[in-house]
Amino acid sequence: MAESYHLLKRADFIFRNENDWEEILTKTIKRTPQDIINELISSELKGRGGAGFPTGLKWKITAEAKSAEKYVICNADEGEPGTFKDREILSRVPYKVLTAMAVCGHIIGAKKGIIYLRGEYHSLKESLEKTISEFEYYCKKIKLEFSVDVFMGSGAYICGEETALFESLEGHRGEPRNKPPYPTIKGYMDKPTVINNVETLAHTFTIFKYGAKKFYDLGVQFSRGTKLFSVSGDTPKPGIYELELGMSLQDFVNEFGDGDTKAVQVGGASGFLVPRKKFQETAIGYQGKLTGISLPTGGSMMIYNSSRSMFNVLDNYLEFFREESCGQCTPCRVGCQQLLIGIKAVKRGERPAQYLDKLLKLTETMQLTAKCGLGQSVANSFASIVENFREEMIY
Amino acid sequence: MEITRDLKNHKVQLSENAIALVKKICRRFNYQEGELINILHAVQSQFGYLPAEIQELIAKELDISVAKVYGVVTFYSFFTMKPKGKYPISLCMGTACYVRGAENILNEIKRQLNIDEGETTPDGLFSLSSLRCVGACGLAPVLLVGEKVYGRVAQADVRKIISEYKAGCLTHPTKE
Question: To bridge A153 with a disulfide, which of A119, A132, A200, A289 should be the other Cys (CB 3.0-4.6 Å)?
């Protein structure tokens, strides 16, 4: 177990300059699609939005799908509370993202890319569109048929879920679809679609430039490469940091905590709360290890010190979920409401402490029966907060 | 500007100009149902909000049901059926802001303006709404007036910010 943990290692790939994007694009699209896909697969890059699906495999399946029309979509609907990395990427290194989208289009046979930009990031739109027109001009020059549109989100957290995002792009309410079929077969407009997080696309640029080995050599087993972390909460240095995956939470807190860290929420509202006593045994990375706890994250790291009430934190998360549940499936719609009512009733003494166990059961049901990741992941923060800070929920 | 509101009956009267403008926007998007969200954005940016009468008009133009338009309008928090103030105040209630005291700020604004969330002051200057994480967690708590971002806001700052806008309004009385 010890070998898979390592100390906090800073890295600098994502925000390193992108001046050579034209060269990288020209060079990469001369390679065969199979060759590029193999390189991505061997880098073991996994989706950086939080779910961690192997990127190379996603591109491969979509490339193999038979359809005259395919799409590449960049998911920039960064809505997880405490995450602000995608905004930085799109404002500082947009060409990396566009290059990655064009290469993906070249591999899978898509001529159109769409960036689904979070409504709150409206201020980025203008400069992004300017960058895109310069990018498209270069594509034409090298005879690569690829165009990119920006679509503005309209303020709905659920649209970060890929199938809800497609619905929204098609002009509907952002209600998730049933899976399967997966987007690789039936995505936007029911056509095979690659949908990747902004950061994932930026990482593929690193791989095209330096090769898979360079990327693979960073991080630990099952969690290769680097990741951007959005650090906020009770920390003297909030901001965005690129770190190698696989560090222990203890090392993270030593670096970013304010000396009085009580708990860290890893992965935003849909993630897990880790109390101080578990910092040492918790690593940040994708699941897959046989021993130890490994937490995946879209990059949100919220630090709480001992002045924070965990009841208030949970109350805020549940209010968020109640508000953002799309209302389509009952477990999520009613579950979120009941959880919020429930913890308030326990706090006020109107319900016995044991009622919390009933609520925990409810989250298990939601995890099993909710239609999409939103309802399924309410259990993560609920259980990890209630189990570790039960007394704060009651008194 | 082109909508007359009958406050008593909650009805609005669309001027011919307004109707023409909505129709023009629908035409610009080729009456495509798939462009509904873009159309709504374009229309709202002209009128400031999307009253039922405008939704009916859009539905008619695109040949889709009013329920479909209403469903989309009410799903997304960016669309509003009530007019917003000249200075729309939004407070981030994301977790980072929340734990750093956003609720106190929200209450202070309510007290200062004497309105609740989702309401507009009678003089039409300010409206208040809460947002979910604007992605500026490093600056928590965050308050927005229009698109201007105020970071690390303290309860005591609220009065100052509001009075700045009130004063600005007084010096530019003609600026609509």
Answer: A119
Q: Is B45's Cβ below 8 Å from some Cβ in A?
A: no
Domain of B111?
87-171
SS3 B160: helix
On whether both B15 and B64 belong to a single domain, the answer is yes
Q: Look up residue A26 and give its two tokens.
A: 């020209």
- What pTM did the predictor assign? 0.92
Annotated binding site of B for [2Fe-2S] cluster: 92, 97, 133, 137
Select from A223, A222, A226, A297 the least CA-distant residue to A13: A226
Indicate yes or no: CB of A123 within 8 angstroms of CB of B76.
no
The pLDDT score that the predictor gives to residue A329 is: 96
A47 and A155 inside one domain = yes
| Domain limits for position A162 | 13-214
By Cβ distance, the residue of A79, A119, A173 closest to B71 is A173
Domain of A192, CATH number, reads 3.40.50.11540
Total of domains in chain A: 3
ipTM of the complex: 0.90
Does A316 contact B99 at a Cβ distance shorter than 8 Å? Answer: yes
